[in-house]
Design goal:
CATH architecture of the largest domain: 3-Layer(aba) Sandwich
Shape: elongated
Number of helices: 12
Largest sheet: 7 strands, mixed
Helix content: 40-55%
Structural class: alpha/beta
Oligomer: single chain
Strand order of the largest sheet: 5-4-3-6-9-11-10
CATH topology of the largest domain: Rossmann fold
Order of helices and strands: HHHHHEEHEHEHEEEHHEHEHEE
CATH class of the largest domain: Alpha Beta
Strand content: 15-25%
Length: 295
Amino acid sequence: MSQANSSEADSNVWTIGRLINWTNQYLSDNGSDSSRLDTEILLAEVLGCERIMLYTRFEEDPGEQIRSKFRELVKRRAAGCPVAYLVGHKEFFSLKFKVTTDTLIPRPDTEDAVQAILDLAKNNPSQVNTIADVGTGSGILAVTLAKELQDCRFLATDISEAALAVAQENAHSHGVIDRIKFRVGDLCIPLQGQTYDIIVSNPPYISETEIEECSRDIRDYEPQLALVSGPTGMEIYQRLVPEAQPLLNPGGWLVLETSPMLAPTLKETLEKQGYQNVDIKQDYTGNPRIVLGQV
């Protein structure tokens, strides 16, 4: 083969670098606002390697079997399916969590709820021994806090048995299953019979109107049960805030994630219910995100 023919053949090989460049543009054209990241996560998944290793393998031909698996994932991503569901996991607080379509996809915003509780525990180490996570989903709050607060005991609840099963898997994989009890049920019903130093929740707070305006990734794929509260977005809070109050130990805290639009109203709701020291914490982008109050 002549040098010219060899170069022509090489240009037709779907190397890892060429796959990344083409898919990045394809996903961008199909509505992804994180097309490069999506591409790399999906390709690393089918290759069974860390994303960083892709950069050392740009000239490699991964072979037709890998390309076929990759193409199928890319098609589903272009149709709107979130990357986390395609690969079956998502990182949160530097930990890898299993996720399924029965659970919300963990978001960086929720890490602020973890940090708020770690701050409470640091300031009052002897007063934070029992924590309940209401609406645990994939278990990110309970499991992450159990990793960080190794002397605490936890209860994680969810109305969805399927979500609770995922949370149990994550607790097992991170070695904290022995310190977390799991109960199925609506809001604070599974908490009855015990009191807690902290009750934390990231409940549904999207209104029925807002969900229609969400991206298709959220609207069409993530569980509506974990997203939509009702006509205003405040419906779950209006039940949870009074339910949690008698289940908190004296000096205990209710810690809630919310949207920036609802934070002032939620703060007022806690104050009217008689919570003390009610405060709003900002997230990493400077938006009001965490509302907490003490009994």
